[in-house]
Amino acid sequence: MTMINKGAVVITGTSTGIGRAIALKLTEEGYRVFAGVRTEKDVESIKQAASGNLTPIIMDITKAQEIKSCSEFVSLAIGDEGLFALINNAYTGFDGPLECIPIDDIRRNFEINVTGQIAVTQAFLPMLRKAKGRIINISATCGRYAIPYRSLLSTSKIAIEAITDSLRMELRSSGIEVLSILPEGIITLEQADKVEADGKKVLANMSPEMKAIYGNNFQVCIEGSVEGNRITGLPPERVTAAILKALEARKPRRQYFVVRSPWQWKLYALYKRLVTHQYFYDNLFKY
Predict the structure, then answer these.
(1) Which of 71, 81, 65, 68 shows the shortest CA–CA distance to 32?
(2) What is the DSSP letter of 145?
(3) Which InterPro entries match (predicted)?
(4) Residue 2 gets which letter from DSSP?
(5) 21, 52, 54, 157: most buried by Cβ count inside 10 Å?
(6) Contact 11, 26 (CB under 8 A)
(7) pLDDT tens-digit map of 93-132
(8) Rounded (10°) CA dihedral 91, 93, 98, 100
(9) Is 1.10.10.10 the CATH number for 8-186+234-282?
(10) How far is CA 172 from CA 35, 133, 178, in A?
């Protein structure tokens, strides 16, 4: 086990997927990681997998008392050292035609993906200010443009990009760096299973009229997402590498895109500016 201490880092949403990969990699690299998980089972799982200084903390980011308790625990643990980084990774997804998504699911989407991120940030800011640390928000490439049938993910990530930009300006005088990581599809088997199961549930709950309007196109969208999460997406290591760059850079960039071809995304951005809105979407999305 490494004895290097590069600084204390809090990461939300580390029970599975990208969050877990980030937490385990940062412990290997010598960071003191406080890993937010959901259950006692998750606590034991990530502790057994860790090879460095990792402390699991049970934190549901929709519960104010859990956030408060975790922030107090971390504050006592790190003392005057302060918090080197907060990585806001936790999120949930509700895919489907917007017309068919229950309002309660829409509310929960924003409670976790937006409001919860702000609540966690508020709680840990005093510790970040002590260390002149940095906030890393895990966004997505759909934070730059909306995706049909994934409207809630898109709007959440677009909101996160706006929050990131606002915080960067507001916290400049405190010496806190604020940035975002924008990955495209990442291979995460747990996410593939969830997307597939949730997609089947949405289709099963559609009325015959809604199935006639959306069914075929939504099925194509879900199949593409599942394939990306299982086979064609990028490995999680690409995200962890971008986060390490952001943590270790003297002056981190505003955004780190994790994509197959950075030039392709630059061309997309230029393409979107040069053509009409409808032409862009008609040619980018075929469903």
Answers:
(1) 81
(2) S
(3) NAD(P)-bd_dom_sf, SDR_fam
(4) -
(5) 157
(6) yes
(7) 899 999 999 999 999 999 999 999 999 999 999 999 999 9
(8) -130
(9) no
(10) 26, 11, 9
